[in-house]
Design goal:
The chain is of the alpha+beta class. The chain has 9 helices and 10 strands. Strands 1, 2, 4, 5, 6, 7, 9 and 10 form an 8-stranded antiparallel β-sheet that branches. A two-stranded antiparallel ribbon has the order 3-8. Strand 4 and strand 5 form a beta hairpin. Helix 2 packs antiparallel against helix 7 and helix 3 packs across helix 4. It is flat and about 105 Å long.
Length: 443
């Protein structure tokens, strides 16, 4: 079975990591992946590295065993997995279409309510106008000596009065203003009622589109369920699914292999921007406006740099849990997995940062697993959150402990109440190991 695999560290990498541990003792805290280790922390990190290496070795062995077990059926099962992924992508697209229509309906409902409020206001104003026009008609009736005014006074309704408005020129200026205001109100009411009718028609169309989108969504979900059920119905299909999960682990870990570069580059950019602005301020010492502008730019760059530094200071209070009412479903390493599987108390639950830090990456993993968010907490510690909908944070954004990152439900193959939570630690010189987050979260 031809499969993509992650890095194979092996004995050479292990020896390299051991050497790097000693180097970590001499490293300061200027860079995000650098951390000073005492003897106890070093022993803990050695244990983490050893455990992760064992996990990776077991994962590679399991993949090799699955390849051997599948044999000639491998290609056929891979085609079935590819079909599952295609339907999964279609399901995600139908879901996005449904959300767009729901958003459109919400906007139309707001517009409809606003139009109804304006109509109600116009009707109140017309009620007040009714009294003024009634008084005018009584006055005209008393003055019916003029044939033209007699004709106008016989108007029985607002509409009738508008039809006869060619007589308005015979009225006094004050009376003509009353009829003109009436005309404007009736026209405005007519336009608002037409607008309401159009909005109601658009709302009915959107609701019909929503019904069709939900039908397509349900059909796609049923096709996906059927494919997964078919694969799970045989031992070979179960092995193919397990192999795909293991390979997905390796793809995620590989995608996080170089997270520090963007953050370090941003910090370098801010340092350079501050230095350049201060140099410009010095050169413009005689030009007050230029000097002040350069100093403002320097202070802004310094503030941004300090915000990043402060977010990466070591946390002494411990992690908070990333979900309200979280329940631990699968432990680290239970199926050669490098994450905790956590279950929220509700679907599409909010996901929070376990500690203060800087968002390193927000990445779309695909329809199966949705979005990933990685947060650097300083001291070489990074937390990773998988199965999110589009995140509410941006890359290089400073976040507080407990700050909202996004909502569950981004993937089609993971329940919308489930989070895959990773923690990785720096092992020195750009190398990382994944560790068990359970003790950090109180499990």
């Amino acid at each position: 079975m031809n499969r993509r695999r992650g890095a194979r560290p092996g004995a050479a990498w292990r020896r390299h990591a051991r050497v790097l541990l000693a180097a970590c003792l001499l490293i300061g805290s200027a860079a995000t992946s650098q951390v000073v280790l005492d003897s106890e922390a070093r022993r803990q990190l050695e244990g983490d590295i050893e455990r992760y290496e064992q996990l990776q070795a077991a994962r590679r062995q399991e993949l090799a065993d699955i390849e051997a077990a599948l044999g000639a059926t491998s290609a056929q099962l891979q085609q079935r997995i590819a079909e599952r992924n295609q339907v999964s992508a279609e399901l995600a697209e139908r879901g996005r279409e449904r959300e767009a229509i729901v958003g459109q309906i919400a906007v139309l409902e707001e517009e409809r309510l606003a139009t109804e409020a304006r109509i109600a206001d116009l009707e109140v104003r017309l009620g007040a106008m009714h009294e003024r026009v009634s008084e005018l008609l009584v006055t005209l009736y008393k003055q019916r000596g003029s044939p033209a005014l007699f004709t106008l006074s016989r108007s029985q309704s607002f509409s009738d009065l508008r039809v006869r408005n060619h007589y308005v020129s015979l009225l006094s200026s004050q009376d003509a203003d009353v009829i003109g205001e009436l005309d404007s109100l009736l026209f405005a009411l007519q336009m608002e009622r037409q607008s309401l009718a159009d909005q109601q028609a658009a709302l009915r169309d959107a609701e019909a589109q929503l019904a069709a989108a939900e039908a397509e969504l349900q059909a796609a979900q049923e096709r996906l369920n059927a494919i997964v059920a078919d694969l799970e119905s045989t031992r070979q299909g179960q092995l193919a699914l397990q192999a795909d999960l293991l390979e997905e682990q390796q793809r995620i870990e590989a995608s996080l292999s170089d997270l520090d570069s963007a953050l370090e580059a941003e910090m370098d950019r801010l340092r350079a921007a501050e230095a350049a602005a201060r140099a410009e301020a010095a050169r413009a010492a005689q030009d007050r406006e230029r000097r002040l502008a350069a100093e403002r730019q320097a202070e802004q760059a310094a503030d941004q740099l300090n915000a990043l530094r402060e977010a990466l200071e070591p946390l002494n209070t411990g992690f908070v849990r990333p979900l309200d009412g979280a329940r631990l479903v699968t432990r680290f390493g239970a199926a050669n997995n490098s994450y905790l599987e956590l279950e929220a108390g509700a679907a599409n639950a909010a996901v929070y940062s376990v500690a203060p830090g800087v968002v390193q990456v927000t990445n779309y993993l695909g329809a199966n697993l949705g979005y990933l968010v990685a947060v650097d907490h300083g001291g070489g510690m990074t937390s990773v959150y998988v199965n999110l909908r589009p995140p509410v944070v941006e890359e290089l954004q400073v976040v507080a402990q407990g700050q909202l990152l996004g909502y569950l439900g981004g993937g089609t193959l993971v329940h919308n109440d489930t989070l895959h939570f990773y923690v990785r630690r720096a092992a020195g010189d750009g190398a990382y190991t994944y560790v068990d987050p359970a003790p950090m979260l109180g499990w």
